[in-house]
Write a structure and sequence with these properties.
The chain is an alpha+beta fold. It is a multi-pass membrane protein.
Length: about 1150
C-alpha cells in the first residue's frame, strides 16, 4: 500500500510493518506484466486495505475465461496439439518424407495434408468454443456499478474495480466482486442474498453488517468520513470460509477491531434480493474472486477404451519396428544375392538405414491418423443426443441433462459398482414432519400411513389454546433453533432457508402449533407470536453456532427478555447429542432409553431423526465464553510480517471453545421427518443389479434408518441375509479381526443359499483406515474388500463426506480393473463424484455443486437406468467399433506392401498413388464409421431397459480387449496378404500384356489393390452395424465413388490412367479380379466373426448360468439377428456381383470394338510399311 494513500492516519493506526505491506508477491521480475492475471493465489500475502483507497498494484476486476487471444492462439494451440504423441509421430513422418534417399513421395511431405486437415478441424472447434467465452467475458466486464469517489457514488464498469473500492449494489443487481458488507438499507443491518449462480440454491440467505460497524456507519456518508481498514486472508477457493478483521475509528474508544466472518462477506455472482441497496468494501477482484477460483475445469479423466487403445498403439508400433527391421534385412539379403557391386561394399549399415527409413514411411499409417479426431467428433454428437433426449429431461422439460465429459461416454457402458448418496438422490428431499417425542411422550403416529402429522388430541389443545408448558416450550424451540429467513408477502410470513430440515420444523411449528416467527428488529430482538392466543415472546439472539457436516449439530444462544435468562438450544444427530448430555442428570437417565427406543421405531420407517437438547447459562459463564470465542475469531500470528492467519489453529481453537459450552445438555425432545423415495427407485436398482452392478449406499444417517431405506429402495431385498460390521474406535484389534473373520465365514457359507447385504458403520471404516501400523491397516482393508465381493449390496451409514471419498479411493486402489460410478446431489457428495471413474450429479434441492462437478448431470435417479443400460452400452459398443475399425482398415491398407515385397526384393517400393493414399483415412473411410457411431442401434431403448443382462458385455470388456483387438489386426493382415499376393498374380502377367503390345505398369497393380482396400473397408462397416441404416449405406457408396473420382483426378500424367488401361484390354481382368478378391476377403472375415460369435454365445451361457433360460432366449435372439444380418450382407453382395456382371457385358462389347479398331489400324500401318 502506498504511504501517501494513508493520509494523516498512517503513523497513528499502522505499524511500520503494516505501512510497508504489499498485497502482491514481492518476488517480481521484468516479465511480470506478461503473466496471467490469475497468478497463483497461494503466493500472495494476506491483505491489508484502507477503505475507499483502491490498491492499483493488485489485479483489476476483469475476468478472463477465454483460453486464447490473437497473439497466443497459434503457439498455444500448436503446443497443445503437438503435446499429443500421435501428432508428433505424423509430423516426424512428414519431415522424413522430405529426405530424398528414403522418400516415397518425391521429397514432398504429403502426410501433412491429412494432418493439416485434422488440426484445422480441431482448431475450428476450439475457436468456436473460445469465441463464446470472449463474448461472455466482454459482457461481464462491461456491466455497470456505482463506485464511491469523492464522497459520492458515480457509475463505473465492473472491469475498473480494485480492492479497496467502496461500491453500492442495488436491489436485484448481481455483485461484481467479493466484498465485505459495511452498510445495508435495512434498519437491522441485514440483506438477503440469492446464491443460485454459485450453488443453484434459490433459498435466500441472510448477510449481516457486524454490530460494531453498524453502530458507527449509521449513514453511507459515515463510511467516507471515518478512517477504517481491513485485514483478511489471501485469495482462496473456500466458498463458505472467510477470516479477517475490520478496524475503524470510534470517537469514544479510538480504533476498534471487529472480527469478520462469512456472515459479513458476500461473493461475486450472488444477487441482492428484498433489500433496497447495500454498500461494501471490495475484497477480491477478477480471477481472484472465490467463484472464479472455484470454476470447474475439465478433469483429465480417461476412459478404459482409451487406456487400452494407448497400450495397443505401443504394441502396434513395436510390431511396425520389427517388420521394418526384418524387411530391411531381407532387402540386404536380396541385394547380396543379386548384385555383385553391392556384395563388394564394406559398409552395409547405411543401406540398412536407408531401407529401414523407406519401410517406416511405407508403414507410417499403421497408426490411424484420423482416429483421435473421429472419436472426439463422434463423442460430441453422442453427447448432443443425450442432451436433446426428452425422456432424460425433467417432467416439465425445464431441466435438461448435461454432458460435461463426453470423453467418458463409453465408460458408462462398463460400470460395475455404483456408489450413491441417500438424501436427495434416492429420496426426494421434500420433508414431511411425522411425529415427535417430548419428555418421553410420543405425539403423532409414525406408521399410520397418512400424509403428514396426525395427532387429534394435540391439534385440539392447540386450537383451544390449552397447550401445556412443555408443549409450548417445544414449539418455541422449533421456532428459535434454526437458520431460516422470514419473508412477508401479502401479510403472510413465508419461510426460506439453506436447510430443508430447518424450514420443515419451523413450518410445522407455525402450521400446527401456531407459533409464528416474525422479523427481528434492528437490535436483534426476535419476536415469536402464538397466533392462537396472540401472545408474543421476545428473545435477543446472542450467538449462532452453525451446523456443519463434521459437527452434525447446530446451536443457538439467546436471552429470554421476559425471564432475563440466557439459554442454549442445540439440535443434531443422536450420536452427537448423546455424547454432549449431562451424564449425571436424572432427566437424561430417564429419557435416554425411551428416546433410543423411539429413534429405533422411526428408523424402521426410514425417517430422519433429530435430538433436541438445551441448557441454562449463567451470565458470568456466558461472558467468559464470549470473550474466548471473540478472541478465537480474530486469532493472528503477530510474528509474520504479512499477518498470516493460523488457519488450522484457529479452527481447532473455535471447535474447542464451542465444545466447552455445548456440553452438559439436558435432553428435551426428538423429531421424526419423512423423506420419500424418488419415483421408480426400487425398479431402477433392481434393473441395475440384474445388469451385474453392485450398489453401495453411503449415508450419514444412523444404521437403522439406512437399513430401512435400503429395504424400501430394493438395495436390500426381504430375502437377503444382512451381515453387519460395527465396532468402535477403541475396540481391541483381535476382537475386530475375529468379527471380520466371522462375517467372512458367514458370507462364504450363506452365499450359496441366499443373497447377502453388508452393513458397515463410519466408525468401523475409521478404525480400519487409521491404525498406527500401515500393515495392520492394509490387512483389515484387504479383508473388508474380500467380504464386499461376496455380497450383493453394501450400505455404509454414519459416514462423513471425507469418508465417502475415502471409500472410493480405497475401492479404486484395491479393485483397479473395476469401474466405479458415484452419484449424488449435494456439496457433500462432490469429492466422491470427482473421485470415481464416472461422476453423476443430480440437479436437486441441495444446489448444483454436485451437478457442476460431475461428468454427467441428470434430473432423477431413475434416469440412471437409461443412461447406463441404453446409452452406456451403445456408446461402449459403437466406440469400441470405431477403434477396431480404424486399426483394421489401416492394417488392410499398409500390409499389402509387405507381401508385395516378396516380388520386388523388399526394395521398399511404394505401391499406391501417393496423393490418393493420403486421402484414405480422411475422405474415403471416415464418413461411414462416424455415421455408424451416431445413428446405429442394436436394440431399442425399451428392450435394453427390460433386458439388462446385455449390459454384462461392457462389465466384462467383451467388446474391446486385447483378444478382440488382435483378432481384427490379424484378420486385416490375412486379408492384406490375400490382396498383396493375388493382385500381383493377376496383373503382373507380362506375356498377356506383351501380346497386346502394352507394357506393365506398377500404378495399375497398386491402384487395383487400393480399390479393393477401399471397397472392403467400406463394406466391413456392416459387420459392426447391428441395424439397417440407409445413411451408413449411402455414405459407404459415396466414399467409394469419391475414391474413383480422386483416382482419376490425381494420377500422374506420365503414365496411362487407370480407366484408359481398363479400356485398353484390362477391364475384364480388373472387374473379375476385384469380385474374386472381394469375395475371398469377405468370406475370411465372415468365417472369423461367426466363430467368434459362437465363442461369445458359449461364454454367455457358461458365465451367467443362473439365468440359463434367459440366456437361451438371448442365444436364439442372437442367432436370428445374425442370420438376418448375414442374409442382408449376401443379398447386397449378389446385387454388387450382378452389377459387375452387367457392366462386364457392356464393357466387353466396348472393348471388342476398340480392339477391332486397333487391329484394323495396325493392319493399315503394316500395309503402308510394306508398300
Amino acid at each position: 500500500m502506498n504511504e501517501q494513500l494513508l493520509l494523516q492516519n498512517k503513523e497513528k493506526y499502522f505499524t511500520k510493518e503494516e505501512l510497508n505491506h504489499k498485497n502482491y508477491p514481492e518476488q517480481q521480475n521484468i516479465y511480470y506484466c506478461l503473466k496471467s492475471s490469475i497468478s497463483d493465489p497461494q503466493k500472495h500475502p494476506n491483505r491489508i486495505i484502507q477503505t475507499n483507497i483502491p490498491d492499483l498494484d493488485v489485479i483489476d476486476n476483469q475476468i478472463h475465461t477465454a483460453k486464447y487471444n490473437l497473439l497466443n492462439f497459434l503457439p498455444l494451440y500448436l503446443f497443445e496439439q503437438f503435446s499429443k504423441l500421435s501428432n508428433v509421430y505424423f509430423l516426424i513422418i512428414g519431415l522424413t518424407q522430405t529426405i530424398h534417399d528414403i522418400s516415397n513421395s518425391d521429397g514432398k511431405p504429403v502426410i501433412l495434408i491429412p494432418l493439416t486437415i485434422i488440426l484445422t478441424v480441431t482448431a475450428i472447434k476450439d475457436v468456436y468454443e473460445d469465441l463464446n467465452r470472449h463474448i461472455y467475458d466482454e459482457q461481464e466486464n462491461n456491466k455497470e456499478i456505482e463506485i464511491g469517489q469523492n464522497n459520492i457514488f458515480i457509475k463505473g464498469k465492473w472491469r475498473d474495480l480494485r480492492i479497496g473500492n467502496i461500491i453500492k449494489v442495488k436491489k436485484n443487481e448481481p455483485l461484481p466482486s467479493d466484498l465485505i458488507l459495511l452498510y445495508s438499507s435495512d434498519k437491522k443491518g441485514k440483506c438477503y442474498i440469492e446464491t443460485k449462480n454459485l450453488d443453484g440454491e434459490t433459498n435466500l440467505k441472510i448477510k449481516t453488517v457486524p454490530k460494531q460497524i453498524k453502530q458507527i456507519f449509521k449513514t453511507p456518508e459515515n463510511i467516507f468520513e471515518n478512517f477504517s481498514f481491513a485485514k483478511y486472508e489471501r485469495p482462496n477457493h473456500f466458498l463458505h470460509q472467510f477470516q479477517g478483521s475490520f478496524a475503524l475509528n470510534c470517537t469514544e474508544k479510538g480504533l476498534i477491531e471487529v472480527p469478520l466472518d462469512p456472515n459479513a462477506f458476500i461473493l461475486r455472482g450472488c444477487t441482492l434480493q428484498q433489500t433496497d441497496f447495500i454498500i461494501g468494501l471490495v475484497a477480491y477482484t477478477g480471477n481472484h474472486t472465490k467463484i472464479m477460483l472455484n470454476s470447474v475445469k475439465a478433469r483429465p479423466k480417461m476412459s478404459s477404451i482409451q487406456k487400452q487403445m494407448n497400450e495397443e498403439i505401443i504394441l502396434v508400433f513395436l510390431v511396425q519396428i520389427i517388420i521394418c527391421i526384418l524387411c530391411s534385412l531381407l532387402c540386404l539379403v536380396w541385394e547380396l544375392s543379386h548384385s555383385l557391386n553391392f556384395f563388394q561394399q564394406k559398409n552395409y549399415f547405411k543401406p540398412f538405414l536407408v531401407n529401414y527409413g523407406m519401410w517406416m514411411l511405407l508403414f507410417s499409417n499403421f497408426v490411424p491418423i484420423s482416429l483421435l479426431v473421429t472419436l472426439d467428433m463422434v463423442k460430441f454428437f453422442q453427447a448432443q443426443g443425450v442432451i436433446k433426449d426428452k425422456e432424460m429431461a425433467s417432467e416439465d422439460g425445464l431441466i435438461k441433462p448435461q454432458v460435461q465429459s463426453s470423453s467418458l461416454n463409453e465408460e458408462l457402458g462398463q460400470i460395475g459398482y455404483i456408489f450413491t448418496d441417500k438424501t436427495g438422490t434416492l429420496t426426494c428431499n421434500q420433508l414431511i414432519f411425522k411425529s415427535f417425542q417430548l419428555e418421553g411422550i410420543i405425539y403423532g403416529n409414525q406408521d399410520d400411513g397418512l400424509e403428514g402429522f396426525n395427532d387429534l388430541n394435540l391439534q385440539k389443545n392447540v386450537n383451544q389454546g390449552n397447550l401445556e408448558q412443555n408443549q409450548e416450550d417445544f414449539f418455541i424451540f422449533l421456532s428459535i433453533c434454526n437458520q431460516i429467513i422470514v419473508e412477508k408477502k401479502n401479510n403472510q410470513y413465508i419461510y426460506n432457508g439453506c436447510s430443508p430440515d430447518d424450514v420443515c420444523i419451523a413450518d410445522f411449528a407455525l402450521k400446527l402449533g401456531g407459533f409464528q416467527i416474525q422479523e427481528s428488529d434492528e437490535n436483534g430482538i426476535l419476536v415469536i407470536q402464538n397466533i392462537k392466543t396472540e401472545k408474543k415472546y421476545f428473545y435477543r439472539i446472542l450467538n449462532i453456532i452453525e451446523f456443519s457436516s463434521q459437527r452434525k449439530k447446530m446451536s443457538i444462544i439467546f436471552e429470554d427478555l421476559e425471564k432475563k435468562k440466557i439459554f442454549l438450544f442445540s439440535k443434531g444427530a443422536d450420536c452427537v447429542i448423546f455424547q454432549n448430555l449431562d451424564k449425571k442428570n436424572k432427566i437424561n437417565k430417564n429419557l435416554k432409553n425411551l428416546t433410543q427406543k423411539y429413534l429405533n421405531q422411526c428408523s424402521q420407517q426410514g425417517y430422519r431423526t433429530l435430538l433436541l437438547a438445551k441448557k441454562t447459562l449463567q451470565n458470568y459463564e456466558y461472558d467468559n465464553w464470549q470473550q474466548k470465542y471473540t478472541k478465537a475469531l480474530t486469532l493472528l500470528d503477530k510474528s509474520n510480517i504479512y499477518i498470516q492467519y493460523i488457519y488450522q489453529q484457529r479452527e481447532e481453537q473455535i471447535e474447542k471453545i464451542t465444545s466447552e459450552i455445548e456440553n452438559n445438555l439436558i435432553l428435551f425432545a426428538s423429531t421424526a421427518i419423512e423423506d420419500k423415495l424418488q419415483k421408480n427407485v426400487p425398479k431402477t436398482i433392481r434393473n441395475l443389479r440384474l445388469a451385474g452392478i453392485q450398489i453401495w449406499m453411503l449415508t450419514g444417517d444412523k444404521k437403522e434408518t439406512a437399513i430401512n431405506v435400503g429395504l424400501l429402495s430394493a438395495i436390500i431385498e426381504k430375502d437377503y441375509k444382512i451381515l453387519e460390521l460395527d465396532f468402535q474406535n477403541d475396540e481391541d484389534m483381535q476382537i475386530v479381526i475375529n468379527k471380520l473373520n466371522y462375517v467372512y465365514k458367514q458370507a462364504q457359507i450363506v452365499k450359496y443359499i441366499q443373497k447377502i447385504s453388508l452393513i458397515i458403520t463410519g466408525q468401523s471404516l475409521e478404525f480400519m483406515t487409521h491404525q498406527k501400523q500401515q500393515e495392520q491397516t492394509e490387512n483389515l482393508l484387504n479383508q473388508f474388500m474380500v467380504i464386499t465381493q461376496l455380497v450383493e449390496s453394501v450400505i455404509l451409514c454414519r459416514v462423513s463426506p471425507k469418508q465417502k471419498r475415502q471409500i472410493i479411493d480405497l475401492f479404486r486402489a484395491k479393485m483397479p480393473k473395476s469401474k466405479t460410478l458415484a452419484i449424488g446431489d449435494g456439496a457433500n457428495d462432490v469429492n466422491m463424484i470427482i473421485g470415481a471413474h464416472v461422476g453423476v450429479g443430480i440437479k436437486g434441492l441441495e444446489g448444483q455443486q454436485a451437478a457442476r462437478a460431475s461428468d454427467f448431470a441428470i434430473c432423477e435417479f431413475q434416469q440412471l437406468n437409461k443412461l447406463l443400460l441404453f446409452y452406456g452400452r451403445e456408446f461402449y459398443r459403437k466406440n469400441s467399433g470405431i477403434v477396431l475399425y480404424n486399426f483394421y482398415k489401416n492394417i488392410l491398407l499398409v500390409l499389402p506392401q509387405l507381401f508385395y515385397g516378396f516380388f520386388n526384393g523388399f526394395s521398399g517400393q511404394f505401391l499406391y498413388d501417393i496423393w490418393v493414399f493420403q486421402l484414405y483415412n480422411i475422405v474415403f473411410t471416415s464418413a461411414p464409421i462416424g455415421i455408424f457411431a451416431v445413428y446405429d442401434k442394436q436394440f431399442k431403448c425399451k428392450f435394453l431397459k427390460e433386458n439388462p443382462l446385455f449390459y454384462w458385455e461392457g462389465i466384462n470388456n467383451m467388446m474391446f480387449n486385447s483378444r478382440v483387438f488382435w483378432k481384427w489386426f490379424f484378420m486385416g493382415a490375412f486379408q492384406a496378404c490375400i490382396l498383396g499376393i493375388l493382385a500381383v498374380q493377376i496383373f503382373e502377367d507380362q506375356n498377356y500384356f506383351s501380346k497386346l503390345g502394352f507394357g506393365n505398369y506398377l500404378d495399375l497393380t497398386g491402384n487395383f489393390i487400393l480399390s479393393n482396400v477401399v471397397f472392403i473397408s467400406n463394406f466391413s462397416i456392416f459387420f459392426f452395424c447391428k441395424g439397417a441404416n440407409i445413411f451408413i449405406f449411402g455414405s459407404s457408396f459415396i466414399s467409394v465413388c469419391l475414391f474413383y473420382i480422386c483416382l482419376q483426378t490425381f494420377q500422374y500424367k506420365s503414365t496411362f490412367l487407370l480407366f484408359d488401361r481398363m479400356i485398353l484390354g484390362q477391364k475384364e481382368i480388373f472387374i473379375l479380379g476385384q469380385i474374386f478378391l472381394f469375395g475371398v476377403c469377405l468370406l475370411v472375415q465372415y468365417t472369423v466373426l461367426v466363430l467368434d460369435g459362437i465363442y461369445i454365445y458359449l461364454y454367455y451361457i457358461l458365465f451367467i448360468y443362473k439365468y440359463i433360460l434367459i440366456n437361451i432366449y438371448i442365444y436364439i435372439y442372437y442367432i436370428i439377428l445374425y442370420i438376418f444380418i448375414y442374409i442382408n450382407i449376401f443379398v447386397f453382395f449378389f446385387i454388387i456381383l450382378f452389377f459387375y456382371i452387367f457392366n462386364l457385358i457392356i464393357y466387353f462389347f466396348q472393348t471388342y470394338i476398340i480392339l477391332k479398331l486397333l487391329t484394323m489400324k495396325r493392319l493399315e500401318e503394316q500395309k503402308q510399311n510394306n508398300q
